[in-house]
Amino acid sequence: MIDIMALSPTDLERFIHLQGIVARQDNDAARVRALRDYYSGEHPIMLTKRQQEYLGALVDGEEFTFAHNLVRSVIDTLRERLDVSGFTVNGVGVEDETDDAAADGQLAALFWDWWAGNKADSGQITLYRRALRDGKAYVIVDWDAANSRPKFALHRVDAGDEEPGIIMHRDPEDDNHILYATRYFYTFDPLNPGKTGTQRKTVYLPGEIRKYIMGKTAGQWQPHMDAGDSTWPLPWVDSAGVPLGIPVIEFANPAGSEIDQIIGLQNALNKTWLDLIAAADASGFPILAIEYQGEGGFGSIQDDADVEGNDEFRFSPGRAIEVDNANVKRLDAANLQPMIETMWTLVQAISGVSRTPAYYLRPVGGGDVPSGEALKQLESGLVKRAQERQLVFGQAWADAFGMAYRVAQTFGPSLPELPEMDIQTVWTDANVRNELSQAQVGQLYQQLNVPDDTIWQYVLGFTPSEIAGWRDAQRRDEAVKLASVADALRRSGVAAQRPADSQPQQAQQNGGANNERTDNPVP
């Protein structure tokens, strides 16, 4: 129990501020859970009481609910344009043949090996989806002693006890300064069911790591040591005792969640679909109407029972109605086209707000998807959004590999020492790839004497591992060719030497024969 009246003015101000942070985090947790539900297609259903009577079964399924989910399309269309293809150190990539840049190239190659070893090619898909959906995602850098390399663990933003995760705690006076990070999670041990579900907490400080476990009394955190931990708290410093820094790297989407701006339109789209279904059910089919002129009734429908004591009857193809003193009319179906146009107008609005080309959000025919310059113009907004996130997420990856480098220096083998290290993330082109056009651009660069590796990676979009594989294959082919040439030269030299050695003997023999012919002329 805290007696706020006993606090100093400074401490009271801090306490009030911290309470505000806690309240905001509670609100953010509920909001993040809602964003995840929208991405998954779990949208709120809005039905009138009348619609609930005959549409309830359609939308109230326990496993699958009704939604025309464009939220997932908006997120995934942007995420597909985010793909890391390599790293450079001080401007040097994986392949560089100059001696001056040998250490830089070695580190760039090492970073790509760490990337591949952590299976980050597939992991980045999950990471970017979380950042675009929730607004933030995280990578925790640790040391993998078994494989002797840094380890990257992907985590999501905290969404309360229901969906725990990472919380970044910032300086009240400087929002850019992170004081520490906290990870909440639950233990799970299938071999000890009685011990599962225990809440855990890990606090990451610049120079130490503190682990806690929830005690039997709710709200009481107790220090905890995992197997292999030697001390509590765990030191997080280099060999000189300098703090390594907070190992939690934040990937913050520049615009927050991509879902925020389209939730209202998504709800309107779902409601329009339900209204369209209701209208089709109520008046979307022709209706047969019988207008009586006097006394009369139905005829020739002997097998139709009087349903619920009224004058309803069943009519199907191949049957006829015979009536006395009555006119039979047909009420045409209602025109549903205006409602359909309203639905596609909402789709177009979502496209405009999210800057996602409409042909990604609605069925298209063969002529609806543009090509060439028209395609480039229509996708310019999407490409700009992708490039903006490449800059932000690329800096986050640079921070992650900078931390990984310090961790490897502390816990692993010796690494190349650099006075300065500028890490840059290389991305594949966010534009739609036109292989013919890119090949032509590559040929132009080649005529300008641009190195092949640069063209392959930055123009054609090939990964450093692919380029390195080609270089190795090229070296092997060249070695085979040189060996073949050397062998051919050796063989030709031996062949040339043998006739020269036999020439005197052959000449002598030829001379003797001539002499014999001279001495014994033919008669």
Topology:
Blueprint: H1 9-40, H2 49-59, H3 71-79, E1 84-89, H4 102-117, H5 120-134, E2 136-144, E3 149-156, E4 166-171, E5 174-186, E6 199-204, E7 208-214, E8 221-223, E9 234-235, E10 248-252, H6 263-283, E11 287-292, E12 298-299, E13 322-323, E14 326-331, H7 337-354, H8 372-378, H9 380-411, E15 423-427, H10 435-447, H11 452-459, H12 464-519
Antiparallel strand pairs: 1-15, 2-3, 2-10, 4-5, 5-6, 6-7, 7-8, 7-9, 11-14, 12-13
Helix pairs in contact: 6-7, 10-11
Summarize the structure.
The protein is α+β, with helices and mostly antiparallel strands.
Provide keyphrases for this structure:
single chain; about 525 residues; alpha+beta; 6-stranded antiparallel sheet; 3-stranded antiparallel sheet; flat; disordered C terminus
Describe the protein in words.
It is a single chain. With 523 residues, the protein is an alpha+beta fold. The chain has 12 helices and 15 strands. Strands 4, 5, 6, 7, 8 and 9 form a 6-stranded antiparallel beta sheet that branches. Helix 6 runs antiparallel to helix 7 and helix 10 (435-447) runs antiparallel to helix 11. The longest helix is centred in the last third of the chain and has 56 residues, at 464-519. Residues 299-304 and 502-523 have low confidence and may be disordered.
